[in-house]
Amino acid sequence: MTIEIAKIRSDFQILDQIVNDEPLVYLDSAATTQKPRQVLDAIRAYYEHDNANVHRGVHTLAERATADYESSRDKVRAFINASSRKEVLFTRGTTTALNWVAKFAEQILQPEDEIVISIMEHHSNIIPWQQAAAKTGAVLKFVYLKDGELDMADLRAKVTNQTKFVSITHVSNVLGVINPVKEIAQIAHDHGAIMVVDGAQSTPHMTVDVQDLDCDFFALSGHKMAGPTGIGVLYGKEALLNQMNPIEFGGEMIDFVYEQSATWKELPWKFEAGTPNIAGSIGLGAAVDYLTEIGLDNIHQHEQDLLNYVMPQLREIEGLTIYGPEDNQRRGGVIAFNLDGLHPHDVATALDMEGVAVRAGHHCAQPLIDHLGLPATARASFYIYNTFADCDKLVEAIKLTKAFFGV
Ligand SMILES: Cc1ncc(COP(=O)(O)O)c(CN[C@@H](CS)C(=O)O)c1O
Questions:
Q1: Mind telling me which SUPFAM superfamilies this protein's record contains (predicted)?
Q2: Ligand 1 centroid vs 110 CA: distance in angstroms?
Q3: What is the distance in A from the centroid of ligand 1 to the CA of 225?
Q4: What ipTM score was computed for the predicted complex, to two decimals?
Q5: pLDDT tens digits for 321-350?
Protein backbone atom coordinates (compact mmCIF):
# COMPACT_ATOMS: atom_id res chain seq x y z
CA MET A 1 0.00 0.00 0.00
CA THR A 2 1.30 3.48 -0.86
CA ILE A 3 -0.64 5.01 2.02
CA GLU A 4 -1.01 4.19 5.72
CA ILE A 5 -4.44 2.65 5.29
CA ALA A 6 -4.92 1.61 8.94
CA LYS A 7 -4.11 5.14 10.14
CA ILE A 8 -6.43 6.67 7.51
CA ARG A 9 -9.32 4.35 8.34
CA SER A 10 -8.97 5.27 12.01
CA ASP A 11 -9.75 8.87 10.96
CA PHE A 12 -13.15 7.82 9.49
CA GLN A 13 -15.25 6.61 12.41
CA ILE A 14 -18.30 6.29 10.14
CA LEU A 15 -16.73 3.29 8.44
CA ASP A 16 -16.82 1.26 11.66
CA GLN A 17 -20.47 0.31 11.52
CA ILE A 18 -22.62 -2.69 10.77
CA VAL A 19 -25.12 -2.44 7.89
CA ASN A 20 -27.69 -5.23 7.49
CA ASP A 21 -25.67 -7.37 9.92
CA GLU A 22 -22.55 -6.91 7.80
CA PRO A 23 -19.54 -4.57 8.20
CA LEU A 24 -20.05 -1.47 6.01
CA VAL A 25 -18.06 -1.44 2.78
CA TYR A 26 -18.48 2.10 1.41
CA LEU A 27 -17.89 2.10 -2.35
CA ASP A 28 -19.82 5.27 -3.32
CA SER A 29 -17.16 7.98 -2.92
CA ALA A 30 -17.85 9.32 -6.41
CA ALA A 31 -21.25 10.41 -5.06
CA THR A 32 -19.73 11.86 -1.91
CA THR A 33 -16.69 10.96 0.17
CA GLN A 34 -16.65 10.35 3.89
CA LYS A 35 -15.09 13.02 6.13
CA PRO A 36 -12.11 12.48 8.45
CA ARG A 37 -12.26 13.62 12.05
CA GLN A 38 -9.68 16.29 11.21
CA VAL A 39 -12.25 17.99 8.94
CA LEU A 40 -15.06 17.54 11.46
CA ASP A 41 -12.82 18.88 14.26
CA ALA A 42 -11.92 21.97 12.22
CA ILE A 43 -15.58 22.79 11.62
CA ARG A 44 -16.45 22.20 15.26
CA ALA A 45 -13.52 24.34 16.44
CA TYR A 46 -14.68 27.19 14.22
CA TYR A 47 -18.20 27.11 15.65
CA GLU A 48 -16.98 26.65 19.21
CA HIS A 49 -14.21 29.25 19.19
CA ASP A 50 -14.10 31.54 16.13
CA ASN A 51 -17.67 31.83 14.87
CA ALA A 52 -18.42 35.32 13.52
CA ASN A 53 -19.29 36.85 10.18
CA VAL A 54 -16.41 37.54 7.82
CA HIS A 55 -15.06 40.75 6.29
CA ARG A 56 -17.50 42.83 8.30
CA GLY A 57 -16.49 43.08 11.95
CA VAL A 58 -13.45 44.62 13.65
CA HIS A 59 -13.82 42.55 16.80
CA THR A 60 -11.48 39.69 17.56
CA LEU A 61 -13.77 36.79 16.59
CA ALA A 62 -14.63 38.48 13.28
CA GLU A 63 -10.94 38.89 12.53
CA ARG A 64 -10.25 35.26 13.42
CA ALA A 65 -13.18 34.04 11.29
CA THR A 66 -12.02 36.16 8.35
CA ALA A 67 -8.47 34.87 8.70
CA ASP A 68 -9.77 31.26 8.82
CA TYR A 69 -11.93 31.81 5.74
CA GLU A 70 -9.25 33.49 3.66
CA SER A 71 -6.63 30.98 4.80
CA SER A 72 -8.77 28.25 3.23
CA ARG A 73 -8.76 30.16 -0.03
CA ASP A 74 -4.96 30.27 0.07
CA LYS A 75 -4.85 26.51 0.75
CA VAL A 76 -7.05 25.80 -2.27
CA ARG A 77 -4.95 28.14 -4.41
CA ALA A 78 -1.81 26.16 -3.59
CA PHE A 79 -3.67 22.83 -3.91
CA ILE A 80 -4.63 23.47 -7.55
CA ASN A 81 -1.61 25.75 -8.19
CA ALA A 82 -3.58 28.79 -9.26
CA SER A 83 -1.33 31.79 -9.90
CA SER A 84 -3.38 34.11 -7.68
CA ARG A 85 -5.86 33.89 -4.80
CA LYS A 86 -8.01 36.27 -6.90
CA GLU A 87 -8.66 33.29 -9.21
CA VAL A 88 -10.18 31.11 -6.47
CA LEU A 89 -13.91 31.73 -6.02
CA PHE A 90 -15.87 29.85 -3.35
CA THR A 91 -19.10 28.36 -4.73
CA ARG A 92 -21.66 25.84 -3.52
CA GLY A 93 -19.88 23.15 -5.53
CA THR A 94 -19.07 22.04 -9.07
CA THR A 95 -22.62 22.51 -10.30
CA THR A 96 -22.71 26.16 -9.21
CA ALA A 97 -19.23 26.74 -10.63
CA LEU A 98 -20.17 25.39 -14.06
CA ASN A 99 -23.41 27.38 -14.05
CA TRP A 100 -21.39 30.55 -13.43
CA VAL A 101 -19.16 29.82 -16.42
CA ALA A 102 -22.20 29.17 -18.62
CA LYS A 103 -23.65 32.52 -17.45
CA PHE A 104 -20.38 34.14 -18.55
CA ALA A 105 -20.79 32.38 -21.90
CA GLU A 106 -24.22 34.00 -22.24
CA GLN A 107 -22.45 37.35 -21.94
CA ILE A 108 -20.26 36.73 -25.00
CA LEU A 109 -21.82 34.05 -27.25
CA GLN A 110 -23.33 35.17 -30.56
CA PRO A 111 -25.73 33.21 -32.83
CA GLU A 112 -23.93 30.38 -34.67
CA ASP A 113 -21.02 30.40 -32.19
CA GLU A 114 -20.31 26.86 -31.02
CA ILE A 115 -19.93 25.13 -27.66
CA VAL A 116 -18.24 21.71 -27.58
CA ILE A 117 -18.79 19.22 -24.77
CA SER A 118 -18.62 15.42 -24.61
CA ILE A 119 -21.31 12.75 -24.39
CA MET A 120 -19.80 11.58 -21.07
CA GLU A 121 -20.52 14.85 -19.24
CA HIS A 122 -22.43 15.10 -15.97
CA HIS A 123 -25.74 16.96 -16.21
CA SER A 124 -24.12 19.96 -14.49
CA ASN A 125 -21.80 20.24 -17.51
CA ILE A 126 -24.57 19.72 -20.07
CA ILE A 127 -27.70 21.60 -19.02
CA PRO A 128 -26.06 25.00 -18.32
CA TRP A 129 -24.62 24.84 -21.85
CA GLN A 130 -28.04 23.87 -23.28
CA GLN A 131 -29.43 26.97 -21.54
CA ALA A 132 -26.61 29.19 -22.83
CA ALA A 133 -27.11 27.88 -26.39
CA ALA A 134 -30.88 28.40 -26.20
CA LYS A 135 -30.52 31.98 -24.93
CA THR A 136 -27.81 33.08 -27.38
CA GLY A 137 -28.51 31.08 -30.54
CA ALA A 138 -25.17 29.29 -30.15
CA VAL A 139 -24.83 25.67 -31.27
CA LEU A 140 -24.10 22.90 -28.74
CA LYS A 141 -21.99 20.05 -30.18
CA PHE A 142 -21.12 16.70 -28.58
CA VAL A 143 -17.91 14.67 -28.92
CA TYR A 144 -18.53 10.92 -28.79
CA LEU A 145 -16.58 7.86 -27.67
CA LYS A 146 -14.18 5.34 -29.12
CA ASP A 147 -13.27 2.18 -27.16
CA GLY A 148 -14.75 3.53 -23.94
CA GLU A 149 -12.80 6.78 -24.14
CA LEU A 150 -13.21 10.23 -25.69
CA ASP A 151 -12.79 10.04 -29.48
CA MET A 152 -10.03 12.62 -29.93
CA ALA A 153 -10.32 12.53 -33.72
CA ASP A 154 -13.99 13.45 -33.30
CA LEU A 155 -13.00 16.26 -30.93
CA ARG A 156 -10.41 17.65 -33.31
CA ALA A 157 -13.01 17.59 -36.10
CA LYS A 158 -15.62 19.41 -33.99
CA VAL A 159 -13.48 22.14 -32.43
CA THR A 160 -13.33 24.85 -35.10
CA ASN A 161 -12.82 28.59 -35.34
CA GLN A 162 -16.55 28.85 -34.62
CA THR A 163 -15.96 27.22 -31.22
CA LYS A 164 -16.01 29.66 -28.30
CA PHE A 165 -16.20 27.23 -25.33
CA VAL A 166 -14.93 23.68 -24.83
CA SER A 167 -16.07 22.11 -21.56
CA ILE A 168 -14.91 18.58 -20.70
CA THR A 169 -14.85 16.46 -17.54
CA HIS A 170 -11.35 15.62 -16.29
CA VAL A 171 -12.55 12.20 -15.06
CA SER A 172 -15.89 10.63 -15.98
CA ASN A 173 -18.09 9.75 -12.99
CA VAL A 174 -19.37 6.74 -14.96
CA LEU A 175 -16.60 5.46 -17.24
CA GLY A 176 -13.84 6.52 -14.82
CA VAL A 177 -11.81 7.52 -17.86
CA ILE A 178 -9.18 10.23 -17.38
CA ASN A 179 -9.50 12.70 -20.27
CA PRO A 180 -6.43 14.46 -21.77
CA VAL A 181 -7.68 17.91 -20.78
CA LYS A 182 -4.24 19.52 -21.18
CA GLU A 183 -4.15 18.41 -24.83
CA ILE A 184 -7.78 19.45 -25.28
CA ALA A 185 -7.03 22.90 -23.83
CA GLN A 186 -4.29 23.36 -26.43
CA ILE A 187 -6.73 22.37 -29.21
CA ALA A 188 -9.31 24.80 -27.82
CA HIS A 189 -6.78 27.64 -27.58
CA ASP A 190 -5.49 26.94 -31.10
CA HIS A 191 -9.01 27.82 -32.25
CA GLY A 192 -9.46 30.80 -29.93
CA ALA A 193 -11.87 28.94 -27.62
CA ILE A 194 -12.13 29.05 -23.81
CA MET A 195 -11.35 25.75 -22.04
CA VAL A 196 -13.47 24.67 -19.06
CA VAL A 197 -12.64 21.59 -16.96
CA ASP A 198 -15.07 19.79 -14.68
CA GLY A 199 -12.70 18.69 -11.94
CA ALA A 200 -15.24 17.11 -9.58
CA GLN A 201 -13.84 13.58 -10.00
CA SER A 202 -10.18 14.42 -10.54
CA THR A 203 -9.33 16.94 -7.78
CA PRO A 204 -9.85 14.42 -4.94
CA HIS A 205 -7.85 11.70 -6.64
CA MET A 206 -4.78 13.11 -8.38
CA THR A 207 -2.51 16.12 -8.53
CA VAL A 208 -4.25 19.02 -10.32
CA ASP A 209 -2.16 21.91 -11.64
CA VAL A 210 -4.42 24.39 -13.40
CA GLN A 211 -1.47 26.38 -14.75
CA ASP A 212 0.07 23.24 -16.26
CA LEU A 213 -3.31 22.24 -17.72
CA ASP A 214 -3.65 25.83 -18.97
CA CYS A 215 -7.42 25.57 -18.56
CA ASP A 216 -9.31 28.84 -18.36
CA PHE A 217 -11.83 27.60 -15.79
CA PHE A 218 -11.77 24.62 -13.39
CA ALA A 219 -14.61 23.46 -11.10
CA LEU A 220 -14.42 21.33 -7.95
CA SER A 221 -16.60 20.21 -5.01
CA GLY A 222 -15.46 19.98 -1.40
CA HIS A 223 -17.69 17.03 -0.53
CA LYS A 224 -15.99 14.83 -3.12
CA MET A 225 -12.56 15.41 -1.57
CA ALA A 226 -13.18 14.57 2.11
CA GLY A 227 -14.63 18.04 2.73
CA PRO A 228 -18.15 19.13 3.71
CA THR A 229 -21.09 19.59 1.36
CA GLY A 230 -22.13 23.05 0.20
CA ILE A 231 -18.64 24.30 -0.62
CA GLY A 232 -16.69 24.17 -3.84
CA VAL A 233 -14.52 26.33 -6.01
CA LEU A 234 -14.52 27.91 -9.43
CA TYR A 235 -10.99 28.62 -10.62
CA GLY A 236 -10.79 31.14 -13.43
CA LYS A 237 -7.95 33.01 -15.12
CA GLU A 238 -7.97 36.54 -13.65
CA ALA A 239 -8.35 38.28 -17.01
CA LEU A 240 -11.52 36.29 -17.74
CA LEU A 241 -12.96 36.72 -14.24
CA ASN A 242 -12.51 40.47 -14.66
CA GLN A 243 -14.70 40.25 -17.79
CA MET A 244 -17.38 38.18 -16.01
CA ASN A 245 -20.43 39.94 -14.58
CA PRO A 246 -21.29 38.96 -11.00
CA ILE A 247 -23.95 36.29 -10.82
CA GLU A 248 -25.45 37.22 -7.46
CA PHE A 249 -25.73 40.69 -5.97
CA GLY A 250 -25.95 42.02 -2.43
CA GLY A 251 -23.71 42.57 0.57
CA GLU A 252 -20.00 41.75 0.58
CA MET A 253 -19.52 41.95 -3.21
CA ILE A 254 -19.86 45.78 -3.42
CA ASP A 255 -17.61 48.78 -3.01
CA PHE A 256 -20.21 51.55 -3.11
CA VAL A 257 -24.00 51.45 -3.35
CA TYR A 258 -26.02 54.43 -4.54
CA GLU A 259 -29.78 54.68 -5.02
CA GLN A 260 -29.70 53.59 -8.67
CA SER A 261 -26.30 51.91 -9.04
CA ALA A 262 -23.46 50.15 -7.30
CA THR A 263 -19.82 49.34 -7.88
CA TRP A 264 -18.28 45.91 -7.35
CA LYS A 265 -15.44 44.79 -5.12
CA GLU A 266 -12.31 43.39 -6.69
CA LEU A 267 -11.71 39.66 -7.21
CA PRO A 268 -12.46 37.26 -5.63
CA TRP A 269 -15.11 38.99 -3.51
CA LYS A 270 -16.99 40.33 -6.59
CA PHE A 271 -18.46 36.84 -6.87
CA GLU A 272 -19.15 36.19 -3.20
CA ALA A 273 -22.42 37.96 -2.37
CA GLY A 274 -23.93 37.57 1.08
CA THR A 275 -22.66 35.63 4.07
CA PRO A 276 -20.58 32.79 2.67
CA ASN A 277 -20.39 29.19 3.81
CA ILE A 278 -17.67 30.04 6.33
CA ALA A 279 -17.66 26.70 8.13
CA GLY A 280 -17.75 24.88 4.80
CA SER A 281 -14.70 26.76 3.53
CA ILE A 282 -12.84 26.01 6.74
CA GLY A 283 -13.79 22.36 6.38
CA LEU A 284 -12.54 22.44 2.78
CA GLY A 285 -9.25 23.92 3.95
CA ALA A 286 -8.90 21.10 6.49
CA ALA A 287 -9.64 18.56 3.74
CA VAL A 288 -6.91 20.11 1.58
CA ASP A 289 -4.48 19.77 4.49
CA TYR A 290 -5.51 16.15 5.04
CA LEU A 291 -5.15 15.10 1.39
CA THR A 292 -1.93 17.06 0.96
CA GLU A 293 -0.39 15.23 3.92
CA ILE A 294 -1.26 11.85 2.35
CA GLY A 295 -0.09 13.05 -1.06
CA LEU A 296 -2.26 13.17 -4.18
CA ASP A 297 0.16 11.03 -6.19
CA ASN A 298 -0.01 8.45 -3.38
CA ILE A 299 -3.83 8.60 -3.46
CA HIS A 300 -3.86 8.06 -7.22
CA GLN A 301 -1.46 5.13 -6.87
CA HIS A 302 -3.57 3.64 -4.06
CA GLU A 303 -6.62 3.66 -6.34
CA GLN A 304 -4.57 2.14 -9.15
CA ASP A 305 -3.49 -0.61 -6.74
CA LEU A 306 -7.14 -1.28 -5.87
CA LEU A 307 -8.13 -1.34 -9.56
CA ASN A 308 -5.27 -3.69 -10.48
CA TYR A 309 -6.36 -5.99 -7.64
CA VAL A 310 -10.11 -6.04 -8.21
CA MET A 311 -10.52 -5.71 -11.97
CA PRO A 312 -9.13 -9.16 -12.89
CA GLN A 313 -11.51 -10.74 -10.33
CA LEU A 314 -14.50 -8.79 -11.65
CA ARG A 315 -13.68 -9.57 -15.28
CA GLU A 316 -13.72 -13.30 -14.40
CA ILE A 317 -17.36 -13.11 -13.24
CA GLU A 318 -19.60 -14.51 -15.97
CA GLY A 319 -22.32 -12.10 -17.09
CA LEU A 320 -20.67 -9.04 -15.58
CA THR A 321 -20.00 -6.15 -17.99
CA ILE A 322 -17.64 -3.31 -17.05
CA TYR A 323 -17.83 0.04 -18.85
CA GLY A 324 -14.91 2.32 -19.62
CA PRO A 325 -11.29 1.77 -20.66
CA GLU A 326 -9.71 -1.70 -20.50
CA ASP A 327 -6.40 -0.18 -19.31
CA ASN A 328 -6.63 0.59 -15.60
CA GLN A 329 -4.08 3.38 -16.03
CA ARG A 330 -6.64 5.21 -18.19
CA ARG A 331 -9.17 5.37 -15.35
CA GLY A 332 -9.67 6.66 -11.82
CA GLY A 333 -11.21 4.54 -9.07
CA VAL A 334 -14.67 4.35 -10.66
CA ILE A 335 -16.15 1.09 -11.99
CA ALA A 336 -19.57 1.13 -13.67
CA PHE A 337 -20.91 -2.36 -14.29
CA ASN A 338 -23.99 -4.45 -15.00
CA LEU A 339 -24.93 -8.07 -14.34
CA ASP A 340 -26.76 -9.87 -17.17
CA GLY A 341 -30.39 -10.50 -16.30
CA LEU A 342 -30.57 -8.04 -13.41
CA HIS A 343 -31.52 -4.36 -13.20
CA PRO A 344 -28.72 -2.35 -11.56
CA HIS A 345 -31.07 -1.20 -8.84
CA ASP A 346 -31.67 -4.83 -7.87
CA VAL A 347 -27.90 -5.39 -7.91
CA ALA A 348 -27.27 -2.37 -5.66
CA THR A 349 -30.05 -3.41 -3.29
CA ALA A 350 -28.66 -6.93 -3.05
CA LEU A 351 -25.13 -5.61 -2.46
CA ASP A 352 -26.47 -3.35 0.27
CA MET A 353 -27.88 -6.43 1.99
CA GLU A 354 -24.25 -7.59 2.17
CA GLY A 355 -23.15 -4.21 3.61
CA VAL A 356 -21.68 -3.02 0.30
CA ALA A 357 -22.72 0.53 -0.68
CA VAL A 358 -22.62 1.26 -4.42
CA ARG A 359 -24.66 3.61 -6.60
CA ALA A 360 -27.18 2.53 -9.26
CA GLY A 361 -28.88 4.63 -11.90
CA HIS A 362 -27.83 7.09 -14.58
CA HIS A 363 -25.38 8.92 -12.29
CA CYS A 364 -26.63 12.31 -13.59
CA ALA A 365 -25.23 11.34 -16.99
CA GLN A 366 -28.38 10.31 -18.87
CA PRO A 367 -27.08 11.17 -22.38
CA LEU A 368 -24.09 8.87 -21.76
CA ILE A 369 -26.22 6.02 -20.44
CA ASP A 370 -28.58 6.42 -23.41
CA HIS A 371 -25.58 6.56 -25.79
CA LEU A 372 -24.35 3.29 -24.30
CA GLY A 373 -27.82 1.81 -24.94
CA LEU A 374 -28.33 1.05 -21.25
CA PRO A 375 -31.21 1.63 -18.82
CA ALA A 376 -28.73 2.34 -16.03
CA THR A 377 -25.63 0.88 -14.40
CA ALA A 378 -24.37 -0.03 -10.96
CA ARG A 379 -21.21 1.81 -9.94
CA ALA A 380 -18.49 1.12 -7.37
CA SER A 381 -16.13 3.98 -6.57
CA PHE A 382 -13.07 3.94 -4.34
CA TYR A 383 -11.18 6.36 -2.14
CA ILE A 384 -8.33 6.59 0.35
CA TYR A 385 -10.08 4.49 3.01
CA ASN A 386 -10.87 1.47 0.82
CA THR A 387 -8.83 -1.71 1.09
CA PHE A 388 -8.17 -4.95 -0.75
CA ALA A 389 -10.58 -6.55 1.74
CA ASP A 390 -13.28 -4.11 0.52
CA CYS A 391 -12.54 -5.33 -3.01
CA ASP A 392 -12.87 -8.96 -1.90
CA LYS A 393 -16.23 -8.16 -0.27
CA LEU A 394 -17.47 -6.47 -3.48
CA VAL A 395 -16.54 -9.54 -5.55
CA GLU A 396 -18.07 -11.92 -2.99
CA ALA A 397 -21.29 -9.88 -2.76
CA ILE A 398 -21.67 -9.80 -6.55
CA LYS A 399 -21.26 -13.59 -6.69
CA LEU A 400 -23.81 -14.02 -3.88
CA THR A 401 -26.18 -11.72 -5.79
CA LYS A 402 -25.83 -13.83 -8.92
CA ALA A 403 -26.52 -16.98 -6.92
CA PHE A 404 -29.50 -15.47 -5.11
CA PHE A 405 -31.19 -14.38 -8.34
CA GLY A 406 -30.03 -17.46 -10.21
CA VAL A 407 -28.35 -15.47 -13.01
C1 LIG B 1 -18.15 14.66 -13.02
C2 LIG B 1 -19.09 15.40 -12.11
N3 LIG B 1 -19.37 16.70 -12.37
C4 LIG B 1 -20.20 17.40 -11.56
C5 LIG B 1 -20.81 16.81 -10.47
C6 LIG B 1 -21.72 17.66 -9.58
O7 LIG B 1 -21.09 17.83 -8.33
P8 LIG B 1 -21.92 18.60 -7.18
O9 LIG B 1 -20.99 18.60 -5.97
O10 LIG B 1 -23.17 17.76 -6.95
O11 LIG B 1 -22.23 20.00 -7.67
C12 LIG B 1 -20.56 15.46 -10.18
C13 LIG B 1 -21.23 14.77 -9.01
N14 LIG B 1 -21.53 13.43 -9.30
C15 LIG B 1 -22.13 12.62 -8.26
C16 LIG B 1 -23.54 13.06 -7.94
S17 LIG B 1 -24.59 12.96 -9.33
C18 LIG B 1 -22.10 11.13 -8.67
O19 LIG B 1 -22.69 10.30 -7.95
O20 LIG B 1 -21.43 10.84 -9.68
C21 LIG B 1 -19.68 14.75 -11.00
O22 LIG B 1 -19.37 13.46 -10.75
A1: PLP-dependent transferases
A2: 29
A3: 12
A4: 0.99
A5: 999 999 999 999 999 999 999 999 999 999
